[in-house]
Design brief:
mainly alpha; two-stranded antiparallel sheet; 17 helices; about 0% strand
Length: about 425
Amino acid sequence: MSLSAQAAERARGGPLRISYAAIKRGMLWLLAASGGFALIEPSPYEVVFLVTLFVFALTGIRFSQKLLPLALLLLAYNIGGIVSLIPWMDDPDSVRFIAVANYLMVTAVFFAGILSQDAAGRLETLRRGYLFAAWCAGFAAILGYFNIANLGEIFTLYGRASGTFKDPNVLGSFLALPIVYVLQRMLVGQAGLLRGLLLMSVPVAALFLTFSRGAWGVLVASAGIMIVLTFLTAPSAKSRVRIATVSLLALATMAVALLVALSFEDIRSVFEIRASLNQEYDEGVTGRFGNQLRAIPMLLEAPNGFGPLRFRWLFNQADPHNVYINGFASYGWLGGLSWICLTVATCLVGWWLVFWRTPTQRDAIAIWSVLFVTILQGLQIDSDHWRHLYLMLGLVWGLAALGPGHRDGGVAPGGDPSRR
C-alpha cells in the first residue's frame, strides 16, 4: 500500500496497514540503535536481536551459496572453541565466553543474509540506527568524563570515557563507523558541511575522550582509506574536486577542535601520556608483547589451546591483546587457523567489493574502510567479541554475495520490497 493510500485510509477512519517490510526495517533500526548499550548482560542488543531474528524468520531469509565460506569458517572457529572448552566446563566465565562467540557467529551470518533483499534500504536503516546509538553512547561518555551529575563513576574507566560500554577501547572503535559514514556523506554532497560536522561532533568528541590509541588509529586510517576510495570511484572530475575540498575543510576543522581540547590542562596531560607509543604495560618480559612472545611456543605444543579465558591465568591476569593469538589460545589450532583464513578471505572479498559499480558501492566503501582497519587493530587488542565487528563482517560478505551485477539494491527481480 502506498503512503498516499495509507493517508487516505486514515482520513476515512479505516485501519492502518503497515507493510511487513516496514516492520523489518523498524526492527533493524532498533537492533542497530540498541548496539550502543553494553553496560549490562544480557544487553538490550541480545534481546532485540532474538526478536529481529524471529521477525525475519517468519518469511525466511535467503542465504546465497557465496556466504558458505563465511558461515563455515565461523563454524569451524566456534567448534574449536567448544573443543577447547571441554576441560573447563565447570567455569561459568569460560562457558559464557564460548556461548557469546557462538551467538556472534549467528549475528554475522544473519546480517549477511538479510542483504539478499532490499539491500540499500536495510543498509540505510542500519546506518540511522547506528548513528543514534553512537550519539547516545557518545553523549554518555562526555557526561561521564566531565563528571556531570556525578556520572563519572558509571561512564568512565581509569579516567577515560567509556560511556555505555565497559571498555573505552571498545567504545572508541564502535564510534568509528558512524563518523566515517557521516564524513563520506559530506564528501559526496549528501550532507552539508555544517550539518555533517554537527552529526559527527558528539561521536568524535567521545572517541577522543576514550584516549584509546587503537581507536584513534582506526578513525584516522579508516577515514583516510574511505576518502581515497571515494575519490578514486567518484563519477566525475567535479565530484573529485568536492571530495578534496571537503576533506581539507573537515581536516582543518578537526585540527582546530583538537587544539582547543588540548588547551585544557587536564585533557592535555592525559593525551600526552596516552599518545606515547611506549606504555609501561607493553614493555618487558611480562608486558603485553612479552606475554605474546612467550605464549607462541607454548601454543605450538597445545592443539586445543589453553582454554577459553585461560591465557590470563598463565600470564599474570593479562589477556593476549591480540585477536590472532587469542584465537589459538582460546579456540585451539582449529579456531586460530579458521580465524586467520576468515581474515584473509574477508580481505580478498572486501577489496574486490569496493571497486564494484553498484547502488551500494558507497556503503561498501564506508563499511570496508572501517572493517579493514579493525581487522588490523586485532594485532593489538582482543576484538573477537565486538558486536560491531560481526555487524561489519556480515554486511561486507552480504554485499559481496549480491555480486557486481546487481542494480536494484538487492530486491529480487519483479519483487516489490514494500510488500515483503
